[in-house]
Amino acid sequence: MNNHLRIGKIATLHVMLDEEERTYFSSAFETVQICEGKVGSMELQKVISSVETAVKRSGMIEEKLYRETHALYHAILEALEGVTRGQWALGEMMRTVGLRFAVVRGKPYELEQEGEWIAVAFYGTIGAPIRGLEHEAIGLGINHI
């Protein structure tokens, strides 16, 4: 694995840092494609849709290529497992989220044949639907394209 291009680490750093803090890592961020956004829905389907829509609008994935959308979908689900502790449920379980996400696309391996990969990181709060009772959560998902 290319030590300079760890897409999961880049996605996690990007989603956790504010704009000023990101300047220290700008050289690592320049080597990959990055899309970011926020989501605060209590419906899992809307969380997934928000990320997919942002990534497609940014041009990071080719919407007409099923394998790219499929890879993104599985990376999102894997990242959400971390946030929801393995239970893909939010509103149904009386939980609310306020998350930022970062999606990174790059080639983490030195061998060209390994191709491109996509990483999705979520960071924010999750908890009871009562303001102030949330706690931090993070999730990371990586999939090959």
From TrEMBL:
State the similarity comment: Belongs to the HutP family.
Q: Does the keyword RNA-binding apply?
A: yes
Q: Which organism is it from?
A: Virgibacillus dokdonensis
Coiled-coil residues are none
Q: Which domain of life is it from?
A: Bacteria
Keywords associated with the record: Activator, Histidine metabolism, RNA-binding, Transcription, Transcription regulation
On subunit structure and binding partners, the annotation says: Homohexamer.
The gene behind this protein is hutP
What protein name does the entry list?
Hut operon positive regulatory protein
The record's InterPro entries line, in alphabetical order, gives: Regulatory_HutP, Regulatory_HutP_sf
- NCBIfam families in the record: PRK03065.1
Q: What does this protein do?
A: Antiterminator that binds to cis-acting regulatory sequences on the mRNA in the presence of histidine, thereby suppressing transcription termination and activating the hut operon for histidine utilization.
* Record carries keyword Oxidoreductase: no
